[in-house]
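Co-fold these.
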Amino acid sequence: MNASAGKPVEAAHLTRTRLFSVLGTLTILLIVCAIAGLLFGTAHISLVRAWSETASADHAILFGARLPRVLMGVIVGAALAAVGTALQALVRNPLAEGGILGISGGGALGAILALVFAAKIGGGEATVPACAFVAALTSTVAVYRLAMVDGQLEPFTLLLVGVIFNAFWGAAIMLVNSVVNFYYTHSILFWLMGSLEAPTYGEVAMVAILGLAGFLVLMYHARDMNLLSLGDESAAELGVDVDRLRRIIFIATSIMIGAAVSVSGIISFVGLIVPHTLRLAFGPDHRLLLPASLIGGGAFMVAADLLARVAIAPSEIPVGAITALCGGPFFIYMLRREGRKPLSL
Amino acid sequence: MRIVSLAPSVTETLFALGAGHEVVGVSQYCDYPPQVRDLARVGSFLTPNLEAILALRPTLIVGLELSSNVRQIRALNSMGYPVLLVSDDSLQQIENSIETIGARIGRQQDADQLVFQIKTKIAAVQGRLANVKPVRALMLVGHQPIVAVGAGTYLDELMRIARADNIAEAAGEQWPHLSMEFIIAMRPQVILDGAMGTDPALSDFWQKYPTIPAVRDHRVIGYPQDPMLHAGPRVGQSLQMIARMIHPEAFGRDAVGAAK
Amino acid sequence: MTTRSHHAVAMRATAIHAGYPGVPVLHGASIEVAAGEMVAIVGPNGAGKSTLLRVLGGSIEPDAGSVDLFGRPLSSVDRREFARTVASVRQENAVAFRFTVMEIVLMGRAPHLGAFRFESPHDVEIASAALERFDLRDLAGRHVQELSGGERKRVFLARALAQEPKIALLDEPTAFLDLKHVAEIFARFRELCAERGMAVVATLHDLNAAALYADRVLLLADGAAVACGTPAEVLTAENLRRVYETDVYVGRNPSTGALIVLPAAIPNVRD
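Predicted complex below.
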C-alpha cells in the first residue's frame, strides 16, 4: 500500500528536530499523567493544603503515600518499556518483552526465594534486588539459548519458549507458596500480580539509578540496534560486534528488569504495548524509540496505577492486572496483524 | 486519640477496653462489635490502604505483626506515625496484646480486668475437664482446600486445654492443607468444621467417609466463625464453645450437644 | 591467477578451505580482485559461490587459507574499518521493522559515524546520491517491507553504495530484477568501477551477464576453481559442459559482439 508515498527524502529519516519534538510531547504527556496520579486517589486531598500545611493529612498523603508511588510508577514503567524495546531489537521481533519471555517471572522467583530465605542468606536491603537481577539474567540467557534454532531466532519458537518459562516459573512460585507459612501467601501474590504499594524513597532511588544506568548503556547502542534489524550478518558487515552487543543488551536489560521486579513484582505487557504503539506512531529508529519508550512507559504505568488505585477504592487492584487487561487484547491484535504480514521475505 | 485498627481482633480488643469511641478506622473484615459497621474502612488486614489511613489523621495505628503489611507499616513509621504491632498466635500472646494495647491507650486497669476474666473462664473449663480423657479431634477452617487448625495457633492451644488431641499437629504448620487420606488415617473422634457452620450442606460431604469415627458417631459439628476465629477478648468464650463441642458430657449434655 | 590490470590488488583469497559445521564447501579456492575491476563468480548450485563471497566478507572464517585486504591480513583489520572498506549485499534482504528506504540507505553511513552522532548533511547527501544512482528517489519515503523483491534489492545495493566502500561483494545482485534493472545495475557498477576504482565481486547465475559485464570470470565447481580469466577464456563450451554436465552453445551476440551462452540441446525427455 502506498501508505507512505510522497514523503520527501528529508522527512524520511530521523532528524534532531524530530527527536526533540517527539520526546518533548511525550514528556508533557508524562507530566500530565504524573499530576493526575498525585491529584487523585482513595482519599480526596487539596493540593493547596498539602503544600502549605505540613502537618495536615493532605501533606502526609501527597508526600508520604502518593509521591513515592507516582515516582516509582514512572521509573518502573520507563524501565519495563525500554527493556521491551531493547529485547525486541535483540530478537528482531515486536512480540518480545520481559514478561512474555519469562524473564520477569524468573526475576520474581529469585526475589521470592530471597525473601523466604532472607534469614539464612543475610545481607541487607540489597539482597532481594540482587537475587532478582541474577535470576533475571539467568532467565534471559536460558530463554535465548533455547530459542536459537540453527543460529536463527524464530519468532514463534521464542514465544513458545517464553510461555514455557512463564509456566515453569509460575509452577516454582506456587511450589514455594505451598510450603511456606500462610502469611507469606500475600507477599507471593504481590510478586505475581505486581504492585506499586508503599515504596520507600530509598527503593525509588535504587530502581532509578539502576534503570538509568541500564538505559544509558542501551542508548549508547541505539544505532547498533537499528543495524541489528538487518540481520546478524548484515549488522556485522556494517561494523557491529553482534555477540558483544547481545551480551550487553542481556546484561543491561536484566539489571533493569531485576531492579523493577524486586520492588514491584511481575508487571507484564508494558514492554509490549508501549514500544509497539510508539513504533507505529513514530517509526522504528531506536535512537528515538528507546527514549520515547522510556518516557511513554512512565506515563502508561502512572496512568495504569491510578486506575488500579481508584477503580474499586478503598481496595486496590494489582497494577499487573490492569496492564494485563490492556495487554491481553492488544497482544491478540498484534498476533493477528503480524500473522497477516510475515516479517521476512 | 484517633486510633486506626488493622485487624478484627485488635478492633474487638479496643472496644472491649472501652476505647471504642476513639477508633476512627478499621479493616475491611472487622465486624464485631456491631458499632464498627459505621466506621471508615482502611483495607484488609493483609493490605492496609495507606492513603485511607493517612486521611483519618490517626494518632495511633494498631495492627498484627505480619509479613504482608510490612511496606505500609514501614511507610507509616517513616512518616512519624506511631504503630503498635501485636501477635495472636497463642493464648499468652493474646493476653499480652490486650495488656500492651491497654497500656498504650492508658487503660491498663481495663486490660487487667479483661485478662482476668479470660483467665477465669479458662480455669473454669480446665476444672471441668480435669479428669476427662482426651479425644482425637480435628478443627477445620475451610474446605477446598481443606485447611485445618495446626500447631502454633491459639485455636490449637484451646483444643489442648479442651482435652483434645489435635490430629493436625503432625503437619507441623499453622494452617496445614490436609488430604482426606490423612484425615481418614488419623481417625478423629470429633470434627469441628467451620465451613459447615456457614454451609450446612457440607454434612453431605462427610457422609462419604463413614469409616471416620467422628462421622460414624455423628460428631461432625459446624461452628460459627464469630467468635471462634477472632483471636481477641472473647477467646474465653471460644474455649467454652470448643470444650462443649468436644466433651459435651462434661457439661451435662449428651453426645450431640442436647441437654440431658 | 593474475589480474589483468596493473591496479592495486584490492582483495585476495588464497587456497581457501571453508564451510559450515559438518559440511565442507570450499576446497582450496582462490580469488583476486583489483581496484577498478569487476569479477564474476559463476558455477553450478552448491559450488560454493556464496560461501566464497562470505569468506571474503569476513562472515565465515576459513579453516585454511588466507584473505588479504589491500595487502593486509583480514584479521588485522578492525571491524569498523572493514565496514568502511568493504560492502556486502546478500541474497535475502529481510528487515525486521518498518524502516523507510532512506533509513535503510542511511544505515550504510553507520561505519563512518560515532555512537551518538547524528547523520550530517554530508551523510544525507551521500545517501541521496546512492538513491539516485539506483533510481530510488521516488521510493525514499516508502517502507522497505512494502516494496517488491526487486525494489528491495536495489535499496540494499544503494545502502552498500552509501558505505563508500572500495570493494563491493554482491551475492546474486540481479535476482528478482527485471531486464531493464539488470542492465542498469551492472551499468551503475561499471560506472563505479571506472569513476572510483571500486572493485566488485559478484556471484552470478546468469552466464551471459557475466560475459557481458565482468572483466574476469571465476568458474567454480565443487568448491574449487576450474578456470579463471577473461569471459572468453573461461566460458568455453568445454569448461561449461564439464561443470554443468550439459551441452552448451557459445557464440557472439550479433548486436553487441559480447559472448553468449545458450543451452545446446533439450535434455532427453523420458518416455
